[in-house]
Amino acid sequence: MYTQALNTSDGDDRHVEDATRSAQFQARIDADERIEPNDWMPAAYRKTLTRQISQHAHSEIVGMLPEGNWITRAPSLRRKAALLAKVQDECGHGLYLYAAAETLGTSREEMVDAMLTGKSRYSSIFNYPTLTWADIGAIGWLVDGAAIMNQIPLCRCSYGPYARAMIRVCKEESFHQRQGFEIMLTLARGTPEQKAMAQNALDRWWWPVLMMFGPPDQASQHSDTSTKWKIKRFSNDELRQKFIDATVPQAQFLGLTIPDPGMTQDAEGHWRYSEIDWTEFKQVLAGNGPCNRDRLAARRKAHDDGAWVREAAAAYAAKRANRPVAQAAE
Amino acid sequence: MTAASIQVSEPPLVLYTLRRADDALILGHRLSEWCGHAPAMEEDMALANMGLDLIGQARELYIYAAKVEGKGNDEDKFAYLRDVRQYRNLLLVEQPNGDFARTMTRQFFYAVFADLYWRAMMMSRDATLAAIAAKAEKEFAYHVRHSSEWMIRLGDGTDESHRRVQIAADDLWAFTGEMFVVDDAERGLIDAGIAVDPASLRPRWLKTISEVLSEATLTIPQNDWMQKGGRIGHHTEHLGHLLSELQSLQRSFPGATW
Lengths: 330, 258
Ligand SMILES: [Fe+2]
Ligand SMILES: [Fe+2]
Ligand SMILES: [Fe+2]
Hints:
Shape of chain B: globular
Order of helices and strands of chain A: HHHHHHHHHHEEHHH
Strand content of chain A: under 5%
Oligomer: heterodimer
Number of domains of chain B: 1
Helix content of chain A: 55-70%
Shape of chain A: globular
Bound molecules: fe (ii) ion
Number of helices of chain B: 11
Largest sheet of chain A: 2 strands, antiparallel
């Protein structure tokens, strides 16, 4: 879901491959055929997809942390159950995506290690903190909303397992988006303090959410092969514009103000937004966001603290597997 | 400004229902603390599943308690606006998560009891409680399966996991007796066929516990001294901290709707 900002297909280091096979592969893509795990594919296609799907999976898992921060403080039992179920869904998305990426030949363990050691990225949006309950509304409404914009086209991605994963994931993300909007609506119609809380969450999340779509088109040189392979079907700016056009009326309905005083509607009805602060984006990507260190530390701690449990499960499974053999040898 | 605690009148059926609701909420809350931090993603899923079952049970029981009480309280007022002395849960379920072995041991001790308890409660003469029981029993059957499997894996896994899970069992054992205690408030409900006598379930509970611990190569704790007090609001120090977190928003913004 949170992959747009991360696309870096390796247009340059593609291996020289059999020209006939490459041509046949491209012909299948052009004919909108799905590529399946056992089909021949260029090494660069495999590498690009492994990177994109695993980064998407990491994002689902790291994304559990900012929202998980409010499960124990959710303000009603209904909200508590809904939030716990939502964060559980994100974990399910992570598992589902790791499984899709594994069909390309890299194990989940390797992918997770790459994330924990900082070699593989997750979406920068999760490097921002959730300060109030309204952030849970804002994340559902805006972050899941942006994720859906990115992911709907991926449901037609040329790689079968990824496309199928996205179809299932998208259904749940739209449910999350509606749930987040409903939290915002309740706050916006609530006490003055609650409304201020909602406005403040929108103020803090708006620009980082726009950055989820990745650098502006003129600055990203990497989308060509992804487009050719039908992994990517819309440019970053196209998706960003779609998202903004869909979101502005929702903010108006909530009675909240988008923190962009320069925003105007053009003759065709598109909302024109002000310059995005790409310096901030680059800093967060480089590890300098407000929560980068906390997020990685939390994932590493869970991994390290859980090592003895995984070792125990493996040891027990090995004992069980050896038992009939040991008996037979007696 | 903070929201004050509500007054609750506790005739036997209300008290009875609140006790079970509090068990479910507090244990569900504990399990939800794991979310995003479990030893494996599959366990994040499983712990959240069990937490969701418990929070769902708590909600149904609070709604029923509110209806029986008839004083305008509701599920959220019960959960968010009672202080530590008004909470009626077992001491076992409020014990901190600790490591994964401790969480699973707590789940195992409780789920084996709850599964037997709610299965018996399906025969309750109170139709609402019988319906809640039918759903809860199915859910606890899974909790028993999941936690038993982990008790065996951890007990018979590595030296380290064996050591940790044995310590957890030893430490939590003293909190298991309270599950089987009956006081005057519940005696009448038992006699009326509305509640079941938990003491009658102890032999079967002990049998399952012994079988699983033995397969797990673990020792049944020998300490027979049992702690109690949760049912009358005499809790361990842990519950206050849990509630201060759980109730923070409702307490800080009196009267707001979320
Ligand atoms: Fe996603
Ligand atoms: Fe997701
Ligand atoms: Fe989501």
